[in-house]
Automatic annotation (TrEMBL):
Family per record: Belongs to the nitroreductase family.
Enzyme class: oxidoreductase
Tagged with keyword NAD: yes
Superkingdom to which the source organism belongs: Bacteria
A matching Pfam family: Nitroreductase
The enzyme's E.C. designation: 1.-.-.-
Keyword NAD among UniProt keywords: yes
Cofactor: FMN
Identification of the protein by name: Putative NAD(P)H nitroreductase
Amino acid sequence: MVELNQPLPPPVPSAELRRRLAERRSAPAQALIAPGPSDAELEEILTLGARTPDHGKLFPWRFVVLGPQSRARIAEQLAVLAEARDKPAKDQAVLAKLTAAPVTILVISAPVPNAKPVWEQQLSAGAVCMNLEHAAGALGYSASWITDWYSYDPQGAALFGVQEGETIAGFIHIGALSEPALERPRPDLSLKVTRLP
Ligand SMILES: Cc1cc2nc3c(=O)[nH]c(=O)nc-3n(C[C@H](O)[C@H](O)[C@H](O)COP(=O)(O)O)c2cc1C
């Protein structure tokens, strides 16, 4: 760990990192199985994940680490909430994604009032989610970034301790992959990139 305000090494080309970035894939949450990260590995994943750009050093997010017991208990409560929704069977079925992985990091966007624009603070929480996925990958685990209906249902989100003014950025489920990931469509960059001289 480099001391505060001490120079950091400059980036150097890394064929390995480029390959990993080019080939990275999320896991289907239901395909995540044991072994998951150890406590020490989880600490490293959180530390690396938190090393994320944020405007104003606000750290406008927080984590809830969810083990299997808490997720199973909350999933039971969510199943009851799902009964009152438009598509109860579908909303209950997706709860399998919440409980499958060995461990889950819930990333909560917690914007600091009257500071930098809220949108920027929320983007920082998204960057944390992506960085957690990269960190999990660097330690040899797969990850899945899921929100699902309960992230947007106030009663559902409250079961995870989400408070007034906070939003769920994502559940980052982490574990080993039970089957190989398959490539998926990627954007046609010619439709996405404008180049100006
Ligand atoms: C904010 C956010 C929320 C997402 N929520 C879900 C979800 O609820 N269910 C789901 O199946 N995929 C969800 N995804 C998609 C997956 O995380 C993932 O992006 C997709 O499976 C392909 O990922 P890959 O390009 O990393 O392989 C979400 C993605 C983002 C960025």
